[in-house]
């Protein structure tokens, strides 16, 4: 299937939603089937857009999406997990003419693994919204604005991995004490220097980004004439928190997002839904003349080296 950007992706969603309204009641009866899982590879396609295409549209709203664009990309290739062994770098040297070239042993050790997870949500749109002239803008806003914060909330946390979500990149990393200097500009310089120094064995000459709360990012932009490293800001990062990341310390797997539309689904309208037959209220798309859009985006990440991430809390600036 031909790959397209976000604009074509959203256009197809709107067209498919309107087709649902106009196609009439066409039903096909079939035998019961079990839902797809890792043991039963899923059939099927979805709409033609890559994970990187979708991610690019989230960058303006998500520091996590920006980081995922920059970090090491890996492929699960239909596997349940991928191992990321650590490789100790060798040290090359100059060799004189006709002298033998030394052999360097690259030592490997067990590293983390990256496992598949997914972001999923159901958004409802009325027929009037889909038939409006700005329908594509509405659908794009619904998908992007709900997906972007979900990445940041999980990524920039200290949470351990769960059955539903990958690890927070700060999990298992102790914060560095913030500067006690009472002059904000000097405290800022102290904190940033300590953060970069902590990850310098893994950073080389560059390859570092800072992630911080909007208040700290704004103060840094106002005080610094030129910045050596990219600054990513996230509203889910607590005020006073500044994170320094060597981008290759994070590995990411990005699957292709898929949106399924339905005008006959019955859903439980709750942010923490249970069984559809529970006491919580449910709503029929057919009865309310609506379309449900279910987004499923497989993606995951893992921290390859915790020493390549540092952070401070409660900064004085």
Question: How would you summarize this macromolecular structure in one to three sentences?
Answer:
Helices cover 29% and strands 21% of the residues. It has 317 residues and is α+β, with helices and mostly antiparallel strands.
Describe this structure in words.
It is a single chain. This protein is an alpha+beta fold and 317 residues long. The protein folds into two domains: 6-20 and 45-79 and 112-166 and 252-273 and 280-303; 184-251 and 304-312, hypothetical protein PF0899 domain (hypothetical protein PF0899 fold). The chain contains eight helices and 15 strands. It has helices spanning 6-22, 51-58, 63-70, 127-131, 135-155, 184-203, 214-223, 285-288, and strands at 72-73, 82-83, 86-87, 108-109, 113-114, 118-126, 208-212, 231-233, 242-246, 250-254, 258-262, 266-268, 282-284, 290-303, 309-312. The strands form five sheets. Strands 1, 6, 10, 11 and 14 form a five-stranded mixed sheet that branches. The protein has a four-stranded mixed sheet with strand order 8-7-9-15, sandwiched between helices. It has a two-stranded antiparallel sheet with strand order 2-5. Strand 7, helix 7 (214-223) and strand 8 form a beta-alpha-beta unit. The longest helix is centred in the middle third of the chain and has 21 residues, at 135-155. The relative contact order is 0.20. Residues 24-48 have low confidence and may be disordered.
């Amino acid at each position: 299937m031909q790959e397209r950007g976000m604009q074509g992706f959203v256009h197809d969603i709107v067209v498919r939603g309107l087709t649902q309204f106009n196609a009439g009641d066409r039903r096909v009866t079939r035998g019961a089937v079990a839902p797809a899982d890792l043991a039963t590879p899923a059939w099927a396609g979805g709409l033609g857009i890559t994970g990187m295409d979708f991610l690019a549209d989230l960058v303006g709203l998500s520091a996590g999406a920006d980081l995922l664009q920059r970090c090491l990309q890996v492929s699960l290739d239909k596997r349940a997990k991928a191992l990321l062994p650590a490789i100790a770098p060798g040290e090359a040297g100059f060799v004189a003419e006709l002298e033998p070239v030394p052999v360097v042993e690259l030592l490997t050790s067990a590293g983390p693994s990256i496992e598949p997870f997914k972001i999923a949500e159901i958004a409802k749109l009325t027929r009037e919204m889909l038939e409006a002239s700005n329908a594509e803008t509405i659908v794009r806003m619904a998908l992007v604005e709900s997906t972007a914060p979900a990445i940041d909330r999980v990524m920039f946390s200290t949470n351990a991995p769960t059955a539903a979500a990958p690890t927070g990149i700060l999990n298992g990393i102790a914060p560095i004490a913030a500067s006690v200097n009472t002059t904000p500009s000097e405290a800022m310089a102290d904190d940033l220097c300590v953060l970069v120094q902590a990850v310098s064995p893994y950073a080389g000459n560059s390859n570092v980004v800072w992630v911080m709360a909007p208040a700290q990012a704004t103060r840094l932009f106002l005080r610094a004439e030129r910045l050596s490293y990219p600054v990513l800001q996230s509203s889910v990062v607590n005020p006073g928190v500044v994170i320094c990341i060597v981008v290759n310390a994070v590995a990411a797997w990005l699957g292709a997002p898929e949106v399924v539309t339905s005008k006959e689904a019955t859903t439980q309208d709750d942010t923490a839904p249970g069984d559809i037959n529970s006491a919580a209220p449910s709503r029929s798309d057919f009865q309310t003349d609506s379309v449900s859009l279910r987004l499923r985006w497989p993606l995951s990440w893992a921290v390859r080296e915790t020493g390549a991430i540092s952070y401070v809390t409660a900064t004085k600036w």
